[in-house]
Amino acid sequence: MTGDLPTAAKAADILERVRKARPRVHCLMNTVVQKFTADGITVVGGIPSMTTSPEEIESFVAKADALTVNLGTLDAERRKVIRLAIEIASASGKPWIVDPVHVDYSPSRLAFARELIALSPTIVRGNRAEMSLVGDVPNAVRIETGPVDHLRDAIRSVRIVNGHAWMAKVTGTGCLSGGVIAAFMAVEKDALTAAASALAVTGVSAELAAKQSKGPGTFEAAFLDALSAISGDDIVNHARIEHEQG
Amino acid sequence: MTGDLPTAAKAADILERVRKARPRVHCLMNTVVQKFTADGITVVGGIPSMTTSPEEIESFVAKADALTVNLGTLDAERRKVIRLAIEIASASGKPWIVDPVHVDYSPSRLAFARELIALSPTIVRGNRAEMSLVGDVPNAVRIETGPVDHLRDAIRSVRIVNGHAWMAKVTGTGCLSGGVIAAFMAVEKDALTAAASALAVTGVSAELAAKQSKGPGTFEAAFLDALSAISGDDIVNHARIEHEQG
Amino acid sequence: MTGDLPTAAKAADILERVRKARPRVHCLMNTVVQKFTADGITVVGGIPSMTTSPEEIESFVAKADALTVNLGTLDAERRKVIRLAIEIASASGKPWIVDPVHVDYSPSRLAFARELIALSPTIVRGNRAEMSLVGDVPNAVRIETGPVDHLRDAIRSVRIVNGHAWMAKVTGTGCLSGGVIAAFMAVEKDALTAAASALAVTGVSAELAAKQSKGPGTFEAAFLDALSAISGDDIVNHARIEHEQG
């Protein structure tokens, strides 16, 4: 199976394809980090859109190459729009990712996350507290992000040992990574490889950015600079994609 | 007609008047870039407000000197508020600008943009894809922004050849320019001259900012610095306002 | 009473306690500055949350240690959620702060602010225009922020003479300070001392940040850096907490 495992070289190749193909990513994104996520998708080469209007969602998802569903700032209206967007994406075979933000705060949100997971997302990504509640996601790539990111699907298990502590001090780096993963899925059908590559690219970018920064505020700007400028060599030299024993 | 054409000297003068008069600009702005737009209006000298609440919009528009209507993240509630805000602005003769964001994604949004344009906005501003769908806007100043900005009204045609490629990598620079144009319209009745001046000021600021930046993330911060600090000499020395042959 | 007055040493101590305790702050925050406020709370050591959904607010406030109620971008839905959140916070004795943003723009918002103030918030904070309309707040700490911040409760009166002019050029510094005050209230029961300490910490951070900045854009990033890195010595050396004669 080694041939099918993600590598730094594949990550560099997928980023290059994102930059050329300029995939459209529609984001049902919490209101807090819409701009930061849009900026992240843009600087890696994608084209973000963000509407959550029920009368427009169909047109926007129809134009998109991938969909990100983030459960932050969830309300009744947004639940309806999310269901509709997933229906459209699924019907046309577009990849989609669910980010079960703060399901550890709200039982009703956890129930909604489970409802969505039953609809077979391509990927589910959360932090440790969130993913421990979500549990197994049999038909999806499961990602738990943190100081080390853990990814697995039915047969493979991978970890990404890149990143920087300041990522946890900038609101929305996890949400942004959901958008970048979607852009990578849009050009790479192997979802585990796409996601591992996206997380390696964001993690290495964070490491490069931290060297240019004095704290979390200047880090945020430098992180976008690094995501924009990161080269294939940077990825090959710094990515730490490790394959776990099954 | 040369005397009525925008010039760098006029742009410098209008910016100075914005800084002195501190015009209030109410923005019906998409949720993605509300803060970035508010920051842009503030650093050029205006006072932004952003509410989209139907029960408060009348008070806010009544206090404003100009209105920006941005069609991003549009929903049914926002359509109602936009109609109400335009009615109040029109009744009191306040200038207003429409930004038909992403009408190329959504037929219902395009129809709504056309409804608003029939209400005689002072200015309509979009990118090439958006403005090609919008078509002619007989009673308004028509602006198509891009690497070169094209402005025209019934008798004049002007282009602004300032700016920097990183503007396209920062979500919301176009939306922000809509807010800055509104601030300039609030102090200058000739809408084409106000808009050309605003776009020259933002374009030159972007050029100055790019020299202080390492990528789109640091550029965003430097752009706000430059918009805040730009001098009349900067404008006169760098603005490229060209008059097209009729 | 001197022993009960806020001092720089107490401010340094309270910040240290925030960093250790990592209090959760739920924010009913205007949509414009949600991320900036969340970043501010995070870098001082707190954990922010931001939902305004009526079906989730109870769970989020139940998990929080303090509540910030900001009246920007107010609509009917948000009024309901605010009332609900305050009821839950009050019932469990959690401290909460009201920020009557732009009550000088909207009579209906001013009436709502008065309704909330009658519910006995721990603190009310606004700028001069806002607080002059709000008037006295008998059972709360009253804060009027500006170039100099004025704080008073039933028996004490304090002013903070820290800060930098660029704070007024960055949208949301006042809103952010409301979030930081909440984090400080979560670990310090004396609300006037908590608030004076939070404002001294943000004010000194702004002064340190301005030295690293070229304008309001780079200042915003440097301000978050400074809030993250500020030391007890920085506070003791630079905080200007003055006690007014009663």
Number of domains of chain A: 1
As residue ranges, the low-confidence spans of chain A are none
Kindly name the structural category of chain A.
alpha/beta
The CATH architecture of chain A can be named as 3-Layer(aba) Sandwich
Order of helices and strands of chain A: HEHEHEHEHEHEEEHHHHE
Inertia-based shape of chain A: globular
Largest interface, chains and sizes: A-B, 29 and 29 residues
What is the spatial order of strands in the main beta sheet of chain A? 2-1-3-4-5-6-7-8-9
Q: So, the CATH homologous superfamily of chain A?
A: Ribokinase
| Radius of gyration over C-alpha positions of chain A, nearest whole angstrom | 16 Å
Question: What does the largest sheet of chain A look like?
Answer: 9 strands, mixed
Number of discrete helical segments of chain A? 10
Protein described:
3 copies of one chain form a homotrimer. By secondary structure, the first copy, chain A, is α/β, with parallel strands linked by helices. The first copy, chain A, has one domain (21-243): UDP-N-acetylmuramoyl-L-alanine:D-glutamate ligase (3-Layer(aba) Sandwich). The first copy, chain A, contains 10 helices and 9 strands. A 9-stranded mixed beta sheet of chain A has the order 2-1-3-4-5-6-7-8-9, with helices on both faces. The longest helix of chain A is centred in the C-terminal third of the chain and has 20 residues, at 191-210. The interface between A and B is medium-sized, with 29 and 29 residues.
